[in-house]
Design brief:
The protein contains seven helices and 18 strands. With about 300 residues, the chain is an alpha+beta fold. Strands 1, 2, 3, 4, 5, 6, 7, 8 and 18 form a nine-stranded mixed β-sheet that branches. The longest helix is centred in the N-terminal third of the chain and has 14 residues. The relative contact order is 0.16. The structure holds 4'-deoxy-4'-aminopyridoxal-5'-phosphate (PMP). Belongs to the class-IV pyridoxal-phosphate-dependent aminotransferase family.
């Protein structure tokens, strides 16, 4: 959940600026937003309470550059600069709790063209706010397959983390909420399972984990990759392949995975109870393993953690 308190600073195109003064001209929204790309990153307070641990920062920044490349946007800052921006912002804002980070890039200046040209120079921002992790709460959610189809590579590449892609997820989410569910699950143009509105999805059946392949119309989720690694650490068999809708109905466990969602068990799908209707044993084990990892208790994947000392 997003905190409501205004942070003191954000990072904008090379320097820290007071959050309240980070303004643009009215003509800088609208068509400019169509091309804009972003990331969502989390910094967790370490279990020792002495530092923040930014989770897989380099992987998130690399995906931001991938998104910019596909959208043909020019980001005039290198990876080290953006890494420094993220860490410097956490320190400047004095966070002593979990914080969400939102690096994003949008065409610079006043944009009146309908089609932002290729090679347009972007401003890069890093914004941040506190969040409360749901990992330890152990809750679940009710999901439903959406009547909205996931955007396809043939129209708008789902591999890109572009603001425009969220029109698709938003329509699906509103439909799900209207029908009394928490979250949608979208099928792709081949009627195979793709992902949620802002998270990837996996199912457990007969002790094996199955998740839609990266060519199923999904964002190449960093949490998805983390979970697959944790499962291999646990000795659990994992398959990445096309997944049918009806497989969701036969799953022993089902869970969303994403930076914001973390690991969120699905306890009902299209009104059918999943397993016993409570988060299953593997989902709970994974949530515990993920917590240990992001809070620095599990030393096996230390290279995924960027340490920022508390102010
Ligand atoms: N799919 C979509 C559409 C998303 O917005 C997100 C969140 N970035 C994810 C999947 C999960 O990706 P990640 O684990 O990298 O946050």
């Amino acid at each position: 959940s997003a905190g409501t308190a205004e942070p003191e600073w954000l990072w904008r195109s090379g320097s820290l600026v007071p959050w309240r003064e980070a303004r643009v001209h009215v003509n800088a929204v609208g068509h400019a937003s169509v091309a804009a790309v972003f990331e969502g990153v989390k910094a967790y307070l370490a279990a020792d309470g002495r530092r923040l641990l930014v989770f897989r920062l380099e992987d998130h920044l690399r995906r931001l550059y991938d998104s910019a490349r596909i959208c043909r946007l020019a980001l005039p800052y290198d990876l080290d600069t953006l890494r420094g921006a993220v860490c410097g912002l956490l320190t400047a804002n004095g966070y002593r709790q979990d914080a969400y980070l939102r690096p994003w890039a949008f065409p610079q200046g006043v944009i009146r063209e309908q089609m932002v040209p290729a090679g347009t120079i972007c401003e890069v921002l890093v914004d941040s706010w506190p969040f409360r992790s749901l990992l330890e709460a152990g809750g679940g959610c009710r999901a439903a397959v959406s009547s909205w189809q996931r955007i396809s590579e043939a129209a708008m590449p789902p591999r890109v983390k572009a603001f425009s892609n969220y029109h698709n997820g938003r329509l699906a989410l509103m439909e799900a909420r209207e029908n009394g569910h928490d979250w949608p699950i979208m099928l792709n143009e081949r009627a195979k399972v793709s992902e949620g509105a802002g998270a990837c999805l996996a199912l457990v059946r007969d002790g094996e984990v199955v998740t839609p392949s990266l060519t199923s119309g999904v964002l190449p989720g960093i949490t998805r990759d983390t979970v697959l690694t944790l499962l291999r650490d646990l000795g659990v068999r994992v398959r990445e392949r096309e997944v049918d809708r009806s497989e969701l109905y036969l799953a022993d466990e089902l869970f969303f995975m994403g930076t914001a969602w973390e690991i969120l068990p699905v306890t009902a799908v299209d009104g059918l109870t999943v397993g016993d209707g409570v988060p299953g044993p593997l989902s709970r084990r994974l949530a515990a393993a993920y917590t240990d990892l992001v809070r620095g208790r599990d030393g096996r994947h230390r290279h995924w953690l960027t340490e920022v000392p508390l102010p």
